[in-house]
Amino acid sequence: MRTYPPTLLRLIKEFAHLPGIGEKTATRLALHVLNISRAKTASLAQSILDVKEKIRLCSICFGLTDSDPCRICTDPERATGVLCVVEETDDLMALDNSGAFRGRYHVLHGVLSPLDGVGPDQLKIKELLDRVEKEKIKEVILANNTDVEGEATASYLARLLSSETVRVSRIASGIPIGCDIKYTDQVTLKRALEGRRDMEGC
User: Fold this and answer.
1) pLDDT tens, 84-93?
2) What domains appear along the chain, each with residue ranges and CATH number?
3) Of the given ranges (12-26, 32-46, 105-119, 182-196), which has the lowest mean pLDDT?
4) What per-residue string of b and e applies to 126-152 under the rule 16 or more CB within 10 Å gives b?
5) Do residues 201 and 161 touch, judged by C-beta distance below 8 A?
6) In whole angstroms, what separates CA 195 from the centre of its chain?
Protein backbone atom coordinates (compact mmCIF):
# COMPACT_ATOMS: atom_id res chain seq x y z
CA MET A 1 0.00 0.00 0.00
CA ARG A 2 2.79 2.41 0.79
CA THR A 3 4.00 2.20 -2.81
CA TYR A 4 0.90 4.02 -4.08
CA PRO A 5 1.09 7.81 -4.43
CA PRO A 6 -0.44 9.71 -1.48
CA THR A 7 -3.31 11.03 -3.62
CA LEU A 8 -4.32 7.51 -4.65
CA LEU A 9 -3.90 6.25 -1.10
CA ARG A 10 -6.34 8.89 0.09
CA LEU A 11 -8.97 7.70 -2.41
CA ILE A 12 -8.42 4.08 -1.35
CA LYS A 13 -8.94 5.04 2.29
CA GLU A 14 -12.13 6.93 1.42
CA PHE A 15 -13.54 3.91 -0.42
CA ALA A 16 -12.54 1.66 2.49
CA HIS A 17 -14.80 3.72 4.78
CA LEU A 18 -17.85 2.52 2.83
CA PRO A 19 -19.80 -0.36 4.44
CA GLY A 20 -18.79 -3.79 3.16
CA ILE A 21 -15.73 -2.46 1.37
CA GLY A 22 -12.39 -3.92 2.43
CA GLU A 23 -8.91 -2.74 1.52
CA LYS A 24 -8.63 -4.92 -1.60
CA THR A 25 -11.99 -3.85 -2.99
CA ALA A 26 -11.22 -0.21 -2.15
CA THR A 27 -7.96 -0.50 -4.06
CA ARG A 28 -9.72 -1.98 -7.11
CA LEU A 29 -12.30 0.81 -7.05
CA ALA A 30 -9.64 3.50 -6.77
CA LEU A 31 -7.66 2.03 -9.65
CA HIS A 32 -10.85 1.82 -11.72
CA VAL A 33 -11.51 5.52 -11.11
CA LEU A 34 -7.95 6.22 -12.17
CA ASN A 35 -8.40 4.33 -15.44
CA ILE A 36 -11.79 5.66 -16.57
CA SER A 37 -12.19 8.86 -18.55
CA ARG A 38 -12.24 12.27 -16.91
CA ALA A 39 -15.85 12.73 -18.04
CA LYS A 40 -16.96 9.53 -16.28
CA THR A 41 -15.03 10.53 -13.17
CA ALA A 42 -16.70 13.95 -13.17
CA SER A 43 -20.11 12.30 -13.62
CA LEU A 44 -19.45 10.01 -10.65
CA ALA A 45 -18.33 12.90 -8.47
CA GLN A 46 -21.36 14.99 -9.50
CA SER A 47 -23.73 12.11 -8.73
CA ILE A 48 -22.32 11.89 -5.20
CA LEU A 49 -22.70 15.65 -4.70
CA ASP A 50 -26.25 15.59 -6.11
CA VAL A 51 -27.26 12.89 -3.63
CA LYS A 52 -25.97 14.97 -0.73
CA GLU A 53 -27.56 18.19 -1.97
CA LYS A 54 -30.91 17.02 -3.39
CA ILE A 55 -32.05 13.91 -1.49
CA ARG A 56 -34.20 14.61 1.56
CA LEU A 57 -37.07 13.06 3.50
CA CYS A 58 -40.60 13.25 2.16
CA SER A 59 -42.66 15.43 4.49
CA ILE A 60 -45.52 12.90 4.39
CA CYS A 61 -44.09 9.36 4.47
CA PHE A 62 -40.46 10.21 5.44
CA GLY A 63 -39.03 8.13 2.63
CA LEU A 64 -36.12 9.38 0.54
CA THR A 65 -36.98 11.74 -2.28
CA ASP A 66 -35.63 14.51 -4.47
CA SER A 67 -39.07 16.13 -4.72
CA ASP A 68 -41.44 16.80 -1.84
CA PRO A 69 -43.92 15.13 -1.51
CA CYS A 70 -42.38 12.01 -3.01
CA ARG A 71 -43.62 10.19 -6.11
CA ILE A 72 -45.36 7.47 -4.09
CA CYS A 73 -47.30 9.95 -1.94
CA THR A 74 -48.43 11.92 -5.00
CA ASP A 75 -49.30 8.89 -7.16
CA PRO A 76 -53.09 9.05 -7.75
CA GLU A 77 -53.18 5.34 -8.61
CA ARG A 78 -51.96 4.33 -5.15
CA ALA A 79 -54.57 2.85 -2.83
CA THR A 80 -55.69 5.27 -0.15
CA GLY A 81 -56.82 4.28 3.31
CA VAL A 82 -53.99 1.76 3.84
CA LEU A 83 -50.57 2.51 5.30
CA CYS A 84 -47.64 0.09 5.36
CA VAL A 85 -45.29 0.97 8.22
CA VAL A 86 -41.60 0.10 7.78
CA GLU A 87 -38.45 0.70 9.78
CA GLU A 88 -36.18 2.20 7.11
CA THR A 89 -36.33 3.50 3.55
CA ASP A 90 -34.52 0.35 2.34
CA ASP A 91 -37.50 -1.67 3.57
CA LEU A 92 -39.92 0.60 1.71
CA MET A 93 -38.02 0.07 -1.55
CA ALA A 94 -37.85 -3.71 -1.06
CA LEU A 95 -41.59 -4.02 -0.39
CA ASP A 96 -42.57 -1.70 -3.22
CA ASN A 97 -40.34 -3.53 -5.69
CA SER A 98 -42.09 -6.79 -4.76
CA GLY A 99 -45.27 -5.42 -6.36
CA ALA A 100 -47.42 -6.92 -3.60
CA PHE A 101 -48.43 -3.58 -2.11
CA ARG A 102 -49.67 -0.61 -4.08
CA GLY A 103 -50.70 1.66 -1.25
CA ARG A 104 -48.78 4.27 0.70
CA TYR A 105 -45.99 3.93 3.25
CA HIS A 106 -44.76 5.41 6.51
CA VAL A 107 -41.10 5.14 7.51
CA LEU A 108 -40.37 5.09 11.25
CA HIS A 109 -36.60 5.54 10.86
CA GLY A 110 -35.68 2.92 13.40
CA VAL A 111 -37.14 0.74 16.12
CA LEU A 112 -37.68 1.08 19.84
CA SER A 113 -34.44 0.20 21.60
CA PRO A 114 -34.24 1.53 25.19
CA LEU A 115 -30.71 0.19 25.65
CA ASP A 116 -29.59 2.35 22.72
CA GLY A 117 -31.57 5.35 23.93
CA VAL A 118 -34.17 5.07 21.17
CA GLY A 119 -37.67 5.76 22.47
CA PRO A 120 -40.95 6.75 20.79
CA ASP A 121 -39.86 10.39 20.50
CA GLN A 122 -36.89 9.41 18.33
CA LEU A 123 -39.12 7.67 15.78
CA LYS A 124 -41.81 8.99 13.41
CA ILE A 125 -44.59 7.59 15.61
CA LYS A 126 -46.42 10.84 16.37
CA GLU A 127 -46.44 11.57 12.65
CA LEU A 128 -47.93 8.12 12.02
CA LEU A 129 -50.77 8.73 14.46
CA ASP A 130 -51.43 12.12 12.87
CA ARG A 131 -51.63 10.52 9.41
CA VAL A 132 -54.03 7.82 10.58
CA GLU A 133 -56.43 10.51 11.75
CA LYS A 134 -55.87 13.05 8.99
CA GLU A 135 -55.95 10.62 6.07
CA LYS A 136 -58.79 8.52 7.55
CA ILE A 137 -56.69 5.38 7.35
CA LYS A 138 -58.68 2.13 7.53
CA GLU A 139 -55.73 -0.30 7.87
CA VAL A 140 -52.18 -0.04 9.16
CA ILE A 141 -49.87 -2.86 8.06
CA LEU A 142 -46.92 -3.26 10.42
CA ALA A 143 -43.98 -4.44 8.33
CA ASN A 144 -41.25 -4.16 10.93
CA ASN A 145 -38.39 -6.63 10.87
CA THR A 146 -39.05 -9.82 12.83
CA ASP A 147 -36.21 -9.40 15.32
CA VAL A 148 -36.74 -8.60 19.01
CA GLU A 149 -36.76 -4.81 18.53
CA GLY A 150 -39.04 -5.03 15.50
CA GLU A 151 -41.56 -7.20 17.33
CA ALA A 152 -41.48 -4.89 20.36
CA THR A 153 -42.06 -1.87 18.14
CA ALA A 154 -44.95 -3.59 16.33
CA SER A 155 -46.58 -4.48 19.65
CA TYR A 156 -46.17 -0.91 20.89
CA LEU A 157 -47.76 0.51 17.75
CA ALA A 158 -50.61 -2.00 17.94
CA ARG A 159 -51.37 -0.82 21.48
CA LEU A 160 -51.32 2.83 20.42
CA LEU A 161 -53.62 2.17 17.49
CA SER A 162 -56.03 -0.06 19.42
CA SER A 163 -58.06 2.99 20.43
CA GLU A 164 -58.41 4.08 16.80
CA THR A 165 -61.07 2.78 14.43
CA VAL A 166 -58.44 1.17 12.24
CA ARG A 167 -57.47 -2.39 11.41
CA VAL A 168 -53.92 -3.17 12.53
CA SER A 169 -52.25 -6.10 10.80
CA ARG A 170 -48.77 -7.62 10.88
CA ILE A 171 -46.95 -9.11 7.91
CA ALA A 172 -46.92 -12.91 8.00
CA SER A 173 -43.94 -14.85 9.26
CA GLY A 174 -42.83 -15.88 5.80
CA ILE A 175 -39.85 -13.65 6.59
CA PRO A 176 -37.43 -15.60 8.80
CA ILE A 177 -36.98 -14.44 12.39
CA GLY A 178 -34.04 -12.06 12.64
CA CYS A 179 -33.96 -11.35 8.90
CA ASP A 180 -33.93 -7.78 7.56
CA ILE A 181 -36.68 -7.00 5.05
CA LYS A 182 -34.27 -5.35 2.64
CA TYR A 183 -32.34 -8.63 2.24
CA THR A 184 -35.45 -10.77 1.66
CA ASP A 185 -36.36 -12.02 -1.81
CA GLN A 186 -39.43 -10.63 -3.57
CA VAL A 187 -41.47 -13.86 -3.48
CA THR A 188 -41.10 -14.13 0.29
CA LEU A 189 -42.01 -10.47 0.71
CA LYS A 190 -45.13 -10.92 -1.42
CA ARG A 191 -46.26 -13.96 0.59
CA ALA A 192 -45.57 -12.15 3.85
CA LEU A 193 -47.76 -9.22 2.84
CA GLU A 194 -50.56 -11.41 1.47
CA GLY A 195 -50.58 -13.51 4.67
CA ARG A 196 -50.65 -10.60 7.12
CA ARG A 197 -52.75 -11.00 10.25
CA ASP A 198 -54.65 -8.71 12.59
CA MET A 199 -52.92 -7.51 15.75
CA GLU A 200 -54.77 -6.87 18.95
CA GLY A 201 -53.71 -4.10 21.30
CA CYS A 202 -52.17 -5.41 24.50
Assistant:
1) 999 999 999 9
2) 6-54 (1.10.8.420), 64-198 (3.40.1360.10)
3) 182-196
4) ebbeebbeeeebebbbbbbbbeebbbe
5) yes
6) 21
Amino acid symbol at 186: Q
pTM: 0.79
Reported as a single tens digit per residue, the pLDDT across 15-33 is 999 999 999 999 999 999 9
25 burial level (CB within 10 Å; 0-12, 13-18, 19+): middle
Separation of alpha carbons 77 and 69, rounded Å: 15
Integer Cα distance of 140 and 84 in angstroms:
6
Determine the Cα–Cα distance for residues 57 and 71; give it in Å rounded to an integer: 12
For residues 174 and 192, give the distance between their C-alpha atoms in angstroms, rounded to a whole number.
Answer: 5
